[in-house]
Amino acid sequence: MAVSDKENAPVKAEDSKEKLKSAKDKKSKKDALSEMTEEDKKLQDDLNLLVERLSEPNEQLYPPALEMMKTLIRASTTSMTSVPKPLKFMRPHYRRMKEIQEKMSPGPWKKSCADIISVLSMTSDETNDCINYRLKGMAEPISDWGHEYVRHLTMGLAAEWRFADAPRREELLKLVKDIVGYHMKHNAEVEACDLLLEIEQLDMLLNYVEEVDHSRVCMYLLSSAPLTPDPDNMIIIRTAKDIYLKFERRLEAMRCAIMLNSPEVIKSIFSECKDPLMKNQMAILLGRHQSFFDLPGASKEDTDLNSNMSLTKHFHSLAKELDIMEPKTPEGIYKSHLEQTRPFSSALTESNRLNIAASFVNGFVNCGFGVDKILQDTETANKFFYKNREFGIMSSVASLGLIYRWDIDNGLAQVDRFLYANDDYIRAGSLLAVGIISSGVQDPCDPASALLMDHVHSDRPCMRIGSIFGLGLAYANSKREAVIKEEDGGVIFELKKVLADQKPSATSEVKGLAGMSLGFILVGTADHKVAMEMLHLLMDKTEAELTDYNWSFVALGIALIFLGTQEKSEVFVESLRSLPDPFGSMVSTLVDVCAYAGTGNVLKIQRLLHICSEHYESDPDASEKRKSAKDNSSKASADPKKPKTSTETQPKAATSPAKSPIKEAPKPKDPKAKEKVDLSPQQAVAVLGIGLIAMGEDIGSQMAIRMFGHLIRYGEPPIRRAVPLALALLSVSNPQLNLLETLSKFTHDADVDTARNAVFALGIVGAGTNNARLVTMLRQLSTFHYKDPVSLMLVRIAQGLAHLGKGTMTLNPFHSDRQLMCQTAVAAIFATCFSFLDAPTCVLNNHQHYLLYSLVLAVQPRHLVTLIEDELHKGTLKSVNVSVRVGQAVDVVAQAGKPKTITGFQTHTTPVLLAHGERAELATDEYISLTPYLEGLVILKKAPTSAK
Predict the structure, then answer these.
(1) Which of these, 151, 342, 582, 811, has the minimum number of CB atoms within 10 Å of its CB?
(2) Rounded to two decimals, what is the model's pTM?
(3) Are 563 and 826 a contacting pair, CB within 8 Å?
(4) For residues 729 and 720, what is the distance between their CA atoms, to the nearest angstrom?
(5) Distance in angstroms (rounded) separating the CA atoms of residues 663 and 634
(6) For residue 254, which of 220, 210, 285 has the smallest C-alpha distance?
(7) Helix, strand, coil fractions of the chain, as percent rounded to 5
(8) What residue stretches are annotated with the RPN1 N-terminal domain (predicted)?
(9) Is 524 left (phi over 0), alpha (psi -120 to 50) or beta?
(10) Domain boundaries, the chain
């Protein structure tokens, strides 16, 4: 009996719990009933009575009952802070209402009942009922049932669409049109866009957008595009472009066409524009983007603005306004007297590498000002040049190009002094200077082509290098007919001939530069023809020849041709895998990362991280040694009682000479081992690729910085060396405090190459900012690296970059409110970082430091200059001083009303400098701007109200 009592005890306990629960439920119901007001009780009774009426067989009772029920429900579904009373009271009758609707004979009242069930389903767990009964209903205006009902329909619709067949989708499409129309009328544009994006019917949006809300819709679409996978992102941008064109917003449509990287669309938008001032503003935008076209129907003013011919004039007006025209010397930047003195450190002051650094620093600091203290006088300049040797002389002379940047008239006159010198290296440097002056400026007379083309096939390698590299810089991203024509005489035609040249002067270095220059000129064009010729050149090389780092610049040229083209590169990526594997895997990864530059593509970043996670041995025999050691230890652990005798321990030393020939015998395994060793360059490119892909998106950049923290701790040496460069790509000309601290740690790394790359990365991150913290860091580093001339040279160059243009310039490739990515600038920065992956054999060897001039393509003034049409000379523009508010940009995407776009602003008079992350807006009602984004050169016109 005791046992049975124990068994029954839990059952009794459960029964008592259930009784207690039912009693509580009854009590809560009684409490609820007692808490109900008289109005609520009446409403509940009325609804119960209406349901009873619908249950009766007399159909004449249905119309008044359904109408009454609709009226009661509609009166309370306008908001949903809590469940409306009618729905709450009707919830117990939900299944009964469905049964009633089934029994009804076909007709309007059956449909009317379906509408009510559709609304009631919001309180049920049946997911599809809301949509199904809506489709069976009367198709009354969807707005009658309130916003919450529409939201509920929208949620179910996206899930339903995925699994629907074609006929079902036709039905759902009618409902979609109703929902989108409702959202657009009720200031819920974001929900409308999200629904159409979800069901891949975004083109429908064009029919519903009105002029009042089109800017909000397009802003939301364009901010969604970077977060959307390919090819949906292109569809989003194309839709935004069509909406802008619908409302005659041609400049915004032009921005979308630039994002699409479509020359045909750009030309058509420009040619269809009738407003000459708007055409001028479009030409300015294309010039800032460094896209140079033969624009159809362009006036002389349009051509000049697109060619950036007036850029130097406006930059000098800014410099005079800020009173910074006085030239600076390298010593004025270093401020050596502030550095901590070390004994015997003066011995390094006149080293060859520091003289080269002084040339770069002098060029970077006085960039674009047209004046300096070293190269103005020919005699002083010659003394300065001959402090260097060979290619050092070439780099020194080329710095003239930086000083006269954009100023073709004065710059070429200054360089002309050295074009006919007796020394080949001075002449080669002056050829490169011509290319640097002409970069970003497209003079219709083509002086760069006239001066450089004669030396492309010279017998002297240094002359070829100066002219080929100069052409690449001068015509970067030029889509003009004179440059890209295939027949004899075109720049591309001549550079392609260099690739096939068999002369002794056509060294691997010359051909590598020719490949990279072709990449600069055809950047982002996906030109398969030229890329295929470069691929054939690489295929002709043996595995041993491809170990020469110069051939990787030909591969870089292919990658730049496919920069930002996304899926257009897929065929080529696969073709490149046919190259010998250490080189082929690196090149295919290189082209793949360039194709998705700035897209923030998460799947590509995951794949690159997977490549970085692989472990490759630095010693081919290391894995064998580890394996044998593991086997020995496992044997020892298998028999722990067996003592180690002297005969077991000694033979290792005794038999090692005899074993050496046996180690050489299994040679078939060696290639596999080698393969693992050589795949480390692919990992270095993968690390750079993570930075390149994530650079366009803030959240992705923050995640990438965290990933690099893991890679620098646990990665192989090639990965660790690439991490500082990748960090620099993420934050070009934007010295964030956490990034500066991280790179500062890496500058003291035990691995010399990692430390040097980190020093250079500091220069890229702080380029043109005059950041006080960074300047102090670099001064301390110059003391730390005083014994190492190579590291000290990089510290000096980083100091020069930090003072780029005396703090008036930037290398940041993003412009137009950080929405447009200048492919030329990205190509320049990436090419420079890529050359640092093997810095000792490339940039930091005795003569290839001229590759640093690739950065020239990314240099842009960060000014805001306002222009207005000259009333005396119609068709020309003159600068005007107006008040503008400059402050930190605020993200206002999808915010209600008219939120403030800047915060913490100050009022200035143009021209002004804009720092990273700053935005400007007009502080006067006298003028209106032709562009909503006040950056660079902005054309104003008199506001209609103020015009007299």
Answers:
(1) 342
(2) 0.84
(3) yes
(4) 15
(5) 22
(6) 285
(7) 65, 5, 30
(8) 47-339
(9) left
(10) 862-948
Q: Angle at CA 555, nearest 5°, toward 550 and 557?
A: 100
- Contact present, 406 and 856 (Cβ < 8 Å): no
Summarize the confidence of residues 396-407 as an average pLDDT.
Answer: 90
26's CB contacts (< 8 A; 6+ apart) are none
Q: What single-letter DSSP state applies at residue 337?
A: G
Q: What pLDDT does 54 receive?
A: 80
Residues 6+ apart with CB under 8 A from 600: 226, 227, 693, 694, 696, 697, 700
CA distance 169 to 175: 10
Please check the confidence at residue 898 and state whether its pLDDT lies above 50. Answer: yes
pLDDT in tens, 493-519: 888 888 888 888 778 888 999 999 999
- Token pair for 706: 């965290």
CA distances from 251 to 263, 284, 285, 868 (A): 15, 11, 9, 17
Strands (E), 700-785: none
Fill in the amino acid letter for 14. Answer: E
pLDDT at 619: 46
Task: Report residue 837 as tokens.
Answer: 């992956």
Is there a contact between 775 and 802 (Cβ–Cβ < 8 Å)?
yes
| Exposure b/e, 616-654, CB count within 10 A at least 16 = b | bbeebeebeeeeeeeeeeeeeeeeeeeeeeeeeeeeeee
Enter the tokens of residue 157: 């619709």
Q: Which is higher by pLDDT, 936 or 647? A: 936
The C-alpha atoms of residue 770 and residue 172 are separated, in whole angstroms, by 59
Higher pLDDT, 270 or 677: 270
SS3 864: strand
For residue 566, give the DSSP letter.
Answer: G
